[in-house]
Amino acid sequence: MANWKGRLSVLAFGAAIAGIGYLLWASGDRVGFLFGLIGGACIAVSTMLPNSLFEKTVSFVGRFW
After folding, report:
1. How far is 52 from 27, CA to CA, in rounded Å?
2. Which H, E and C letters describe the chain, residue by residue?
3. Residues 6+ apart with CB under 8 A from 20
4. CA-based angle 4:10:2, to the nearest 5?
5. Which regions span the lipid bilayer (predicted)?
6. pTM for the full model?
7. Exposure pattern of 13-42 as b/e (b: 16+ CB <10 Å)?
8. What would the pLDDT profile of 27-55 be if each residue is shown by its tens digit?
9. CA–CA dist 14, 34 (Å, integer)
10. I need a surface site. Which of 13, 17, 46, 62 has the fewest CB within 10 A?
């Protein structure tokens, strides 16, 4: 999953979750901040980690998903 399609899917998932979190936060719901943090973490993982560490992170998160 370390190819560009895997990274793009994690980036898109993170952007969607962060967008939902922003909308929740703007409407006054406090859980939106948590959604924004989770989305931001997905975006950071997909853009900044090298391939081997990205694969390990995705497989680790996949165990609990």
Report:
1. 39
2. CCCHHHHHHHHHHHHHHHHHHHHHHHCCCCHHHHHHHHHHHHHHHHHHCCHHHHHHHHHHHHHHC
3. 32, 35, 39
4. 40
5. 7-25, 31-49
6. 0.82
7. ebeebbeebeebbeeeeeebeebbebbeeb
8. 999 999 999 999 999 999 999 999 889 98
9. 12
10. 62
